[in-house]
């Protein structure tokens, strides 16, 4: 990878020396103008539309309805524990060093599995499995094996080479023995949290993580044959500059992951108390963040990565890039997914399910989650059943977010509507974005331009009928 690193590094110049536009269609003034707050559209309707009149009974009915579809299953398991708090974190987590505290939680997870599986045709294959957190590798090797056994007993896990079984890993809390154990349990994809390799930034976010920890795990994962490795980075953290983040990117490119997620840090200390430990004066300003973003896109593109959309990048031979080329890419609560048309079952505190025509969410409070299951009922506390209009708009927004374009003729045919007429207000609303060069329209084809891809959330917002009622709800910035 040294050639790629050199090619990328040669592009690092002062933002002021760059032309306003280029291969990426970069226009800083335009980005600033459209850099408002908006949903990330991991679902539509978004979680802000979920309501507490949605009950566990609504979920079980949806599970039973879904059996007729014969769709494959996707399982998400939330492990909320981690040993140390990272100051930037906005996840639902419990900080503790005592792995014994996970035992009661694992028992509740099993109870949730039993209650869920009662309503499912469990001959449906589990094509996708994802453990998130927190830090799933907080669990001991025995606890991880026990959890896999429980999942297999309740749902029947897959041994298909096409399965997508992923786990999020903190390189500070795992070693080569952990990876060997995970491979033996059936995981074939891992995601490593890195965030930044600069020691000054790491100290400011309370995450000291030398490169050797990540490199050792990646080398072992490649040796074991893990199909796809993802690295998570975050830009906008304290003390980051365009130059310092370019150095992190050079090192990451040398590590050669199949996928990269480069998230925009959203500083919301009122909502996420750990962020109060970050000094706002140490955060890069808006101009510096845009420079970091531009450098990121240029360096990763020069290194051969495909910009899937928003904050995701993948090598052309990775399943994400292949799914996007084939038009089968999906967006869910874990980001982009190559396994479309699965019913997603969320297990654990705060987990969200997407089944048939509903979304259902568990409580974020651990005590409330446990109490519901101890009473012999699913822990669902809120959710929504989608109307026909919601289903149509979800389809359009998801295709925009995944394909960066939409074919209104296909929408018309799929939903038996006159899509240009149905979405006339949205199309009218997008005229200014079209004039500004965010998208092009040719007949029934709407396509995001290179700069429109960076602002795809803004384009999707035009099709969101629920957004006007959700202003001021604390969405993150688009860029």
TrEMBL record:
Task: Tell me where on the tree of life, at the top rank, the source sits.
Answer: Bacteria
Catalysed reaction, written as an equation: coproporphyrinogen III + 2 S-adenosyl-L-methionine = protoporphyrinogen IX + 2 5'-deoxyadenosine + 2 L-methionine + 2 CO2
The record's Gene3D superfamilies line, in alphabetical order, gives: 1.10.10.920, Aldolase class I
Q: How would you classify this enzyme at the top EC level?
A: oxidoreductase
User: What GO CC terms are in its UniProt record?
Assistant: cytoplasm
Q: Which Pfam families match?
A: HemN_C (PF06969), Radical_SAM (PF04055)
Q: Which residues bind S-adenosyl-L-methionine 2?
A: 88-90, 134-135, 195, 207, 232, 266
The answer on whether this UniProt entry bears the keyword S-adenosyl-L-methionine reads yes
Q: In which pathway does it act?
A: Porphyrin-containing compound metabolism; protoporphyrin-IX biosynthesis; protoporphyrinogen-IX from coproporphyrinogen-III (AdoMet route): step 1/1
Which N-terminal stretch is annotated as signal sequence? none
Identify the residues that bind S-adenosyl-L-methionine 1: 76, 133, 168, 352
Intracellular or extracellular location(s)? Cytoplasm
User: Which cofactors does the annotated protein need, by name?
Assistant: [4Fe-4S] cluster
Entry's transmembrane regions: none
Note on cofactor:
Binds 1 [4Fe-4S] cluster. The cluster is coordinated with 3 cysteines and an exchangeable S-adenosyl-L-methionine.
Provide the family line.
Belongs to the anaerobic coproporphyrinogen-III oxidase family.
NCBIfam families, sorted:
hemN (TIGR00538)
Q: Tell me what this protein is called.
A: Coproporphyrinogen-III oxidase
Q: Which organism is it from?
A: Vreelandella sulfidaeris
